[in-house]
Design brief:
The protein has 10 helices and 10 strands. It is of the alpha/beta class and 325 residues long.
């Protein structure tokens, strides 16, 4: 057992004043010098790595890239830069207006008669339906002329198939008679319903009077599944039934090419022909015919849309003789 030695008060004071150190501890100054030395040793390496690397261009470093020479401006571009702005604006407006007028002339649904009326005929007429819209018949009668001749007759669509009535038939049919235009009514033939039903439908809707033109059968369509024999038989059935009712031979309307293909039968020559043949100087049909529809691009006062133009093969007195008495 170690016996502790008692310390005097002076010894205690000297012990408190002396700094406490532990075994193995080093002084702070040598440690500071060591860290500074490490920092100085690392500094060159970090400075080298932090420097920005040049952009990789695929060319040797330090060699400047060759710039493409500036593109030479055209004479027109240089000349236009010296012009004031308003002539350019006026020129653009002129070009736009010219293009608009050309497009309107080429593609407008309205226009003048594209084919001149055939020479040698003095009795002119039209045919209309709901496609012509509301017609001003007074203006049409007083101002419409073709080859300096007044409008003499008008065929008006009445029916189609076995149940359709043209939406403007009543108004057009009454107005034509009111303004002294010789009128006629036509039926558009369909093979989808029996010919006799179509004839009865026309008879119920159209009351022809003295001075009216004979009824008209408009034939333009033949389905592929209908044979030519059945097609002709249906047409003949309609003609016979209507003739029986009105006591006058109906007029038969068709295109020239359609007639040549499907209706070349002598039985149909017994009926007055109304041939549609456009953009020709004369009718190529060799058989007898009474009316010729020579254009579908007419424009007349009182009608807003294009209208079909026709001539009668004869005088006005002969047209009246053809009418119902």
């Amino acid at each position: 057992m170690v016996k502790k030695t008692a310390k005097t008060p002076a010894a205690r004071r000297s012990a408190k004043a002396a700094p406490k150190t532990s075994v193995g501890a080093t002084s702070s100054k040598p440690a500071a010098k060591t860290s500074a030395a490490k920092a100085s040793a690392v500094k060159p390496s970090s400075a080298k790595s932090s420097a920005p690397k040049p952009y990789a261009t695929g060319k040797p470093a330090g060699k400047p890239s060759r710039r493409r020479p500036a593109r030479r401006k055209s004479f027109f571009t240089q000349w236009r830069r010296h012009l004031p702005k308003w002539p350019q604006m006026v020129g653009a407006v002129i070009v736009f207006a010219t293009c608009w007028l050309l497009c309107r002339a080429l593609f407008s649904s309205k226009g003048r008669v594209l084919v001149e009326p055939p020479e040698g005929y003095t009795v002119h007429g039209i045919d209309v339906s709901h496609h012509q819209g509301i017609i001003n018949w007074e203006l049409l009668r007083n101002q419409a002329t073709i080859s300096d001749q007044p409008l003499a007759f008008a065929f008006i669509k009445a029916t189609e198939g076995s149940d359709m009535v043209d939406s403007r038939f009543r108004q057009n049919f009454a107005a034509a008679r009111q303004y002294g235009i010789v009128r006629g009514a036509y039926h558009f033939y369909r093979t989808s319903t029996p010919a006799k039903q179509q004839a009865e439908h026309f008879i119920r809707q159209v009351q022809l009077e003295e001075g009216d033109l004979p009824p008209v059968l408009d034939v333009e369509v033949k389905p592929a599944e209908v044979s030519i024999e059945d097609f002709r038989q249906g047409i003949l059935e309609w003609l016979l039934r209507v003739e029986q009712h009105y006591k006058v031979k109906p007029i038969l309307y068709t295109y020239h090419s359609f007639h040549q293909q499907y209706m070349r039968d002598s039985i149909f020559n017994l009926y007055p022909y109304w041939i549609a043949h456009y953009y020709v100087d004369s009718v190529r049909y060799n058989g007898p015919w009474a009316f010729w529809q020579y254009s579908d691009k007419g424009e007349l006062p009182g009608i807003k849309e294009h209208v079909d133009l026709n001539i009668f093969r004869g005088t006005y007195e002969e047209l009246q003789q053809l009418a119902i008495h």
